[in-house]
Amino acid sequence: MGDARVERLGTLLVDYSLGLGEGEVVRINSSDAAAPLVLALQRAALARGAHAYANIALEGLSEILVNEGSKAQREFVPDLALREVDRLDAEITIWSEMNTRAFSRADSEARGQVYAAERSLVNRRWERIGRGEMRWVGTLLPTNGHAQDAEMSLREYEDFVFRACHVDGDEDPVAHWQSVREELTARAAEFAETREIRIVGPDTDLRLGVAGRTWQPSYGIYNMPDGEVFTSPVETETEGEIRFTLPAVFYGREVEDIRLRFEGGRVVAAEARRGGDYLETLLDTDEGARALGEFAFGLNYEIDRWTRNILFDEKIGGTVHLALGSGFEDCGGKNQSALHWDIICDLRDEGEIYADGELVWRAGHFLEAPKPVAERV
Amino acid sequence: MSDQRIERLADVLVDYSLGAQEGQQITIEAPSAAGPLVREVYRRILRAGAYPLPRIGIEGMLENLMLDGSDAQLDWVNPARRDDIEEVDGRVVIMAPSNTRSLTTVDASRQARFHRALEPQRNRYLERAANGELDWVLTLLPTHAAAQDAEMSLTEFEDFVYRAGFLDKDDPVAEWKAFGERIERVGSFLDEVSELRVVAADTDLTIGVGGRQWIRSRGQENFPDGEIFTGPVETSVEGTIAFTYPAVFQGREVDGVRLRFEGGEVVEATATRGQDLLREMIAVDDGAKRAGEFAFGLNEAVTSFTREILFDEKIGGTIHLALGTAYPETGSANRSALHWDLICDLRDGGEVYADGELCYRDGAFLAALLG
């Protein structure tokens, strides 16, 4: 059975994130690299009376499809696969890869076609989640590939990941995530009436309209680890400039030191020290790719370093992130795009954030703890 | 370094066994340990213009289900896999065991329950295959576990497996076509026979085969291959048979099996080891008491017992009989959750009579009969 932390992670996902019940059908999406977690999840699901099965992406097949498939084969979305999604009560995605750069040299157009086909299945899932028909959670089991991206040994990286998930044995994981739920729910409620967010930092002064939008707390239901509060900004109101000091990664490719200028909600100027061509390609994905779909605070302070993996990086305590592309309907977001690209802005040194002109955040921390929801009534 | 024989195996599976066509949907059903072969098969399905649909398993999941699953969980059939069976045009099923005994300690009734739940799905795919709507092929990628069962090193076992598939030859497909012609001659002879009698040590069994189809197995549905089989007339089997090799079912061995048939049904079943399992399997359902298959093994490159039925039933010079479900294309109506092949070696003194005439001796058909 190996690492007890993997078993605890499996139980946390099944019992807390998904709350699986008797007779429910759960699919575990994973590469073969994460087999130990697939097995732990299956055991936890069996203990709850659920029916668990795996959908395994064998390392190397996607690469063969991108490099050797025809356009029709790359774009193919089997009706069988769509109907399979329709039958699930819950789904778990484990994003573990042996080599995170397997597609660095692949033809972007070909990769994009395969990505679009995968995306149509993911969209189907989100439609069903939106209607309350299914649940989903995404996580990661450490591999050497991800440790290498994070510039750590596998052992160090495992300690980092399991600590961020609070499954390393020092505390009850479910109790921890329930306390996160309370704190972030209260934090999100404080922004309910906010009309404008202003981000100020080095080479950065950006105003986002958030009036009428809903802020969502994120406490381990959709992602593990977790810890963010996010919304979808008003699509036409983003104005100003922002500089991202941390590299942005999209499907294994890095774009460094991005600077964006927004007018009327849209990116009107973009530059990067490295990867500028790729940045332009992504901005040209479609009509919606130049507007923001997300603004969020990263609030997991166990995640204290950049690891080249968005699951962790967007939650780094003390950062904010913006996503170009599709917005979230449950936040009131209307932007539509095939792209959803999270870019992290590190505010831990000297960033400031104002809510309707009032300073609420400085150097990576809110100035005040949120008032518990009960006391606000 | 990659083994070129794996690439040749993939060539034969996709181009010869399945004959993959443009636009078809073809599942690749394999454990992750079969990765090297899965990748080559996937590549060739793409080359054929078809759509590969990988269904990859993780070693240990079946064990988890068997050890921890409730009755309801053992009974559950994944509707997505049932849809596959209804709709795909082809299946490539690859075995690559990591441990052939991982289920040895699991209660046999739990395994039987699990297999019973899957029976309708199994029957449905056999039915679609019999109607020509679905092509399938089953093969095995050598692993240490399979080599260990065959009492060989992995290198020796790889040589054995690839030789049995003629993959050591320059043009394996041409070899299979030539072998297919030899099997066809055996078939033409058996097509005219209404009763077979097998005589060997402790064995004297008669089997009615009149009106049944003899299916020539030339590498299309099993790989490697080399047998000819039918479904006996359900009520016809009479007499006794002693099986030569240990029979392996879900990782458990039953040794020294002897069966006595009356009116097509097993009326007495004994084993020197594993008799409880034998009787439990026969009691699964009514169809498990009847022979669903009778066959001759014809592959001369498969010479020794490996504990893997894919190979063992093809051993040149043996016959086998399967208790349980029949292949519908043979004309047999026998249906069961069970399909358990038992092998009888005829290479040393065994005889087969066709409608009273000697037609087979010491593991080979009499040359004069085959023209």
Chain pair with largest interface: A-B, 33 and 35 residues
The total strand number of chain B stands at 20
How many domains, in number, for the residues of chain A? 2
Number of strands of chain A: 19
- Write down the overall geometry of chain B: globular
Number of helices of chain A: 12
Strand content of chain B: 25-35%
Rg estimate of chain A, integer Å? 20 Å
Beta-strand residue percentage of chain A: 25-35%
Number of domains of chain B: 2
Nearest-integer average pLDDT of chain A: 94
For this structure, the quaternary state is heterodimer
Distance between the termini of chain A: 48 Å
Shape of chain A from CA axes? globular
The number of helical elements of chain B comes to: 11
* Estimated structural class of chain B: alpha+beta
| Largest sheet geometry of chain A | 8 strands, antiparallel
Briefly note the structural class of the backbone of chain A: alpha+beta
Radius of gyration of chain B: 20 Å
